[in-house]
Amino acid sequence: MLTKEDMIVVKQVRIAKDTYELILEGELTLQMNEPGQFIHLQIGNGREHVLRRPISMADVNGNQLTIVYRIMGAGTKWLAEREAGDAINVLAPLGNGFPTHAISNTNILLVGGGVGVPPLYYLGKKLKAQGNRLTTVLGFQTKDAVFYEQRFRELGDCIVTTNDGSYGQTGFVTDVISGLTEINRYYACGPTPMLKAVSQQISVPGYISLEERMGCGVGACFACVCSTIDGNDKKGYRKICQDGPVFPANEVVLV
Amino acid sequence: MLTKEDMIVVKQVRIAKDTYELILEGELTLQMNEPGQFIHLQIGNGREHVLRRPISMADVNGNQLTIVYRIMGAGTKWLAEREAGDAINVLAPLGNGFPTHAISNTNILLVGGGVGVPPLYYLGKKLKAQGNRLTTVLGFQTKDAVFYEQRFRELGDCIVTTNDGSYGQTGFVTDVISGLTEINRYYACGPTPMLKAVSQQISVPGYISLEERMGCGVGACFACVCSTIDGNDKKGYRKICQDGPVFPANEVVLV
Amino acid sequence: MNLAISLPGLDMKNPILPASGCFGFGKEYSQFYDLNQLGAITIKAATGNGRYGNPTPRVAETSAGMLNAIGLQNPGVEAIVAEELPFLSTFHTPVIANIAGSTEEEYTHVAKVLSESGLVSALELNISCPNVKEGGIQFGTDPVLAASLTRKVKSVSNVPVYVKLSPNTGDLKGMAKAVEAAGADGLSMINTLIGMKLDLQTGKPILSNKTGGLSGPAIKPVAIRMIYEVSQVVHIPIIGMGGVTCAEDVLEYLLAGASAVAVGTANFTNPLVCPEIIDALPETLSNYGYSSIEECIERSHKNDPASSLISRS
Amino acid sequence: MNLAISLPGLDMKNPILPASGCFGFGKEYSQFYDLNQLGAITIKAATGNGRYGNPTPRVAETSAGMLNAIGLQNPGVEAIVAEELPFLSTFHTPVIANIAGSTEEEYTHVAKVLSESGLVSALELNISCPNVKEGGIQFGTDPVLAASLTRKVKSVSNVPVYVKLSPNTGDLKGMAKAVEAAGADGLSMINTLIGMKLDLQTGKPILSNKTGGLSGPAIKPVAIRMIYEVSQVVHIPIIGMGGVTCAEDVLEYLLAGASAVAVGTANFTNPLVCPEIIDALPETLSNYGYSSIEECIERSHKNDPASSLISRS
Ligand SMILES: Cc1cc2nc3c(=O)[nH]c(=O)nc-3n(C[C@H](O)[C@H](O)[C@H](O)COP(=O)(O)OP(=O)(O)OC[C@H]3O[C@@H](n4cnc5c(N)ncnc54)[C@H](O)[C@@H]3O)c2cc1C
Ligand SMILES: Cc1cc2nc3c(=O)[nH]c(=O)nc-3n(C[C@H](O)[C@H](O)[C@H](O)COP(=O)(O)OP(=O)(O)OC[C@H]3O[C@@H](n4cnc5c(N)ncnc54)[C@H](O)[C@@H]3O)c2cc1C
Ligand SMILES: Cc1cc2nc3c(=O)[nH]c(=O)nc-3n(C[C@H](O)[C@H](O)[C@H](O)COP(=O)(O)O)c2cc1C
Ligand SMILES: Cc1cc2nc3c(=O)[nH]c(=O)nc-3n(C[C@H](O)[C@H](O)[C@H](O)COP(=O)(O)O)c2cc1C
Ligand code: FES
Ligand code: FES
């Protein structure tokens, strides 16, 4: 049975401009082991904010879960105000994450953009432990927004780009990727234009994680659908919350 | 200029069934010196609960204000959950309180019912300090609801009634009052039926404090009006928040 | 406490049912609790053929509410009967099928297929979806069209038909009386109000459909008022909905004139909201002095001769 | 940043004004701040004779909103001119008088007295008060009556006339076009939605008038949608309102097609809300890339040829 839990804030740290790392503790964490899955957070008592907010798991350690998020609006602002000891109601783990089963001894590329970076960290840790070689390319708008570079460096190569050139290489992640060779497989998470560019650029098998505004987060409301690329697909659509958020790069239409 | 302030919770204690005493600290307290005035409390960030809640001042000491309230619904429930250090946004002091100016050496009766009791305590302290003799009659539903008896006893005689006879004298405050003689003046606060009965029963000058559902709390919205008894009154009505909540017993119609 | 209530076609263990479109076809929430606990289940709207619905974004949050413009996405009535209803029939909980269409023919086709499937206990005629260009709201704002549609659907259906009304009309009482006269066995109300939210960066509506249906606690006062007024002018039962989140809300709906209460948006906030409400109902009702659901309904204003009609519609 | 905006009869320092009925006649809030800060001030509805209004309780809280059934209490137009307006005329802030009545004659009398007083810059014709049996809403739901009333009021008024529309109608665009054709200089929208809340103890409505007008953040999506739609079919400016609590809300209204924005209920939550919004506007607008109020309005969808009309009303 799926359930919800009041998870307890262990720690909250600002790690970049408007970007926070939050550690939560609770029983539900014991069910979390698939990178790319997400948790669905209630904002306040859920009366002013009736919709939960989907945030990816960035790391899992015992009964502690790490998430990293950027303040975008009222919900993430509320999250950023939580302090150690506060409770946050969570549904988790939801969706299907990045497939990692039986993947080893492979040259893997991780591509993250902005707040698409966090789930790749948990993924990278797992893939590294399974004996893969990792290269990570992280794209940010500007220097102030950069986070987790050091952590990814501990997993393998890590190249950072900023759009304005204020840190790392100037430009987009795709500028860097074009120079990478010997990649057998990739995983990407970030803004849709980035996912589109990356999946067009790389021909090896890849998995991408999508975002969409969600209602239920569990597959019941049809808020978060996208079309399949295969016109003969029986359903013709996928629900991002339930079938995703991770899909094979060639499965769904990116708009 | 009137203003609002984030007052800080110093202490919160449960003093009877569903009844709490809350001490708040802030600059605004320095403007509070008229018993019977009220403060207007914002609930949460004011988005789910757009209306403030009116609560009487029960005591004032330096920059600390005491209120006593009973949990009736969502707003008072929220109040009861505040802890030391939390901030509560307050407008105060509002309205016109009990007239005490130049009153001394008088036999005064205080009549309070339920959560109408709190403002009488601050009033009683002040009247006693001005050299008056006080008798207090407090009516409660039942034993569990009784509070502040001891405090009023420190100011003079104090008789408690409970409707169900589980504490003090059985019955209503009016049953007790009929036996009191040599009263020169009275002040009453409590449910409207009590105020009505008391003001019909006692012929000496009296002041009563009224309650009504409020919008603005400052006189701008006409939510809280009551009619004047005097049919020739120019306006014909009073705003409880602005003209009251305290009125001479013969000024307004009680319904 | 006895929470049971009987409505046309629906023998309910309790008055709580999920609202259409907020519960899919039941599978997802069956991962959270045993659906046997529910009074009934309303499934997502069915149309003749499968529909993909509107482009995304399809939802946006508002103060104490949300907008949706799903656009009646569903796999089509045949697939629903073949692939979705069998799962629900494993529970001892009556199923209400919400039906929609672009034309009277589509509505009657869907109604016929569903009622003949033997897998649903009642139909809910959705003439109030604000999110599709055709197939819903035009029937929901014209009493003559609505009555004609109701009559046609009744004639092909062997289960009771509830008509789901739109609040986006000036004359809801007229509409209610028209569909009652046309044979509706009950009413469902309310569907969503039409609303919009803009993206402050782009200046454009957040929903790709521009407008969406407003649901959640924000609309409860509008729903309560409509049910209070309509329940005085019809004799068929009302399934009430709009912003229900707790047992107190359920009591308010019963007192306003509803006989059962559906929960929509709150499922998204709290997937366990329906069983939690059902658990809380006995204590809540008795706190307020009621000893059964029937008693709340009997004591509601619609059975109070002193409760005069409100003249404004 | 230049926040100034000019509307018929109203030279406003900024687009923010308190909404009618939520600001009395200004005195109370002048205890909190200097009313010169405001773009304009809308005063409580005036009727021919003084009215006491409805019995109490007159307000009730709902999720992110409130209900009111004040019932147009006011001292009557003569007393307003003699006792209330002189105070407001000590400020350099234009005053809009909200006018109501039971008959066309009462409306025109009130309009005449106020416009001849020389103390108001514009009239706001309240044909949308849901809380009185007569004098408001019947004019607000019938375009023919509304147009006739607008024409009569215009003919006696020497200041511009804004017509305040009711959301409780199925055809708001028709109504807006009718009053524009009848000479309205601008529109105010929206007034409150009709709602109700029950007392769970007694089972009866909390408001003694039973129904009341729903205002506050809960109704903002409904207001935004209506302004977005109406602003595409009329050429007169719109004063937008409904649930405004912050500078972001103001921007949303401007982008939806409003030219000025009124704040009602939020004054009760926060008596300093209007000056706080005005202070926050420059930074908020520039955060979103706008350099003036005019620019927000110009960039709003109503000036965007690509913004196609919404066909449903
Ligand atoms: C599967 C998934 C995983 C995500 N993981 C992360 C993460 O690890 N870190 C992170 O910073 N962000 C992540 N996001 C985006 C995050 O959900 C939004 O930034 C957040 O919901 C914004 O909420 P808000 O209240 O601050 O903003 P508002 O704009 O005030 O939110 C209003 C509504 O819009 C929705 N919404 C707004 N933006 C988005 C968006 N980009 N995606 C989905 N819904 C949105 C909100 O959920 C809410 O319902 C993820 C989104 C999805 C779908
Ligand atoms: C001048 C004045 C002084 C008061 N002093 C005290 C006091 O010292 N201690 C105390 O316990 N109570 C006092 N009250 C009553 C108190 O305001 C209400 O019990 C409280 O507002 C209930 O809020 P709630 O959210 O818990 O209840 P809800 O019923 O959920 O409140 C919903 C709405 O109704 C209003 N409301 C409900 N009951 C009342 C009421 N009896 N009077 C006014 N508004 C009401 C609330 O303010 C709110 O707007 C006073 C009321 C007034 C008018
Ligand atoms: C995401 C979503 C989808 C909906 N889909 C349907 C539908 O298919 N058919 C229908 O009749 N009502 C539909 N509704 C309306 C609900 O059934 C309900 O009438 C409305 O949301 C009010 O209840 P609530 O406030 O509890 O959500 C939908 C509502 C939401 C939020
Ligand atoms: C207590 C109260 C009294 C009101 N009185 C009037 C009125 O006299 N005339 C009028 O046109 N609108 C009146 N309104 C409606 C407001 O002016 C405004 O249109 C509505 O409340 C929506 O704005 P808000 O959500 O910011 O409050 C009143 C609203 C409230 C809450
Ligand atoms: S969010 Fe409801 S189906 Fe995905
Ligand atoms: S509460 Fe607004 S006038 Fe008294």
Structure description:
The complex is a heterotetramer, with two copies of chain A (255 residues) and two copies of chain C (313 residues). Chain A has 255 residues and is an alpha/beta fold. Chain A has two domains: 3-94, Elongation Factor Tu (Ef-tu), domain 3 (Beta Barrel), CATH 2.40.30.10; 107-211, Rossmann fold, CATH 3.40.50.80. Chain A is built from five helices and 16 strands. In chain A, strand 5 (59-61) and strand 6 (64-70) form a beta hairpin. The longest helix of chain A is centred in the middle third of the chain and has 12 residues, at 118-129. With 313 residues, chain C is of the alpha/beta class. Helices cover 34% and strands 18% of the residues of chain C. Chain C has helices at 27-30, 77-88, 104-116, 137-141, 143-156, 172-181, 220-230, 247-256, 266-269, 273-287, 293-299; strands spanning 5-7, 10-12, 16-18, 41-46, 59-62, 65-68, 95-99, 122-126, 161-164, 186-189, 193-195, 212-215, 238-241, 260-263. The longest helix of chain C is centred in the C-terminal third of the chain and has 15 residues, at 273-287. The complex binds flavin-adenine dinucleotide (2 copies), flavin mononucleotide (2 copies) and FE2/S2 (inorganic) cluster (2 copies). Residues 214-217, 219-224, 239, 241 of chain A line the site of one FE2/S2 (inorganic) cluster.
In short:
With 255 residues, chain A is α/β, with parallel strands linked by helices. Chain A has helices spanning 74-80, 118-129, 149-153, 173-177, 192-201; strands at residues 4-16, 19-25, 38-41, 53-56, 59-61, 64-70, 87-94, 107-113, 133-140, 156-162, 169-170, 185-189, 206-209, 225-227, 237-239, 246-248. In chain A, helix 5 (192-201) links the parallel strand 12 (185-189) and strand 13.
Task: Name its key features.
heterotetramer, A: 255 residues, alpha/beta, Elongation Factor Tu (Ef-tu), domain 3, Rossmann fold, 7-stranded antiparallel sheet, 7-stranded mixed sheet, 16 strands, C: 313 residues, 11 helices, globular, binds flavin-adenine dinucleotide, binds FE2/S2 (inorganic) cluster, pyrimidine biosynthesis (chains C, D), Dihydroorotate dehydrogenase (chains C, D), cytoplasm (chains C, D)
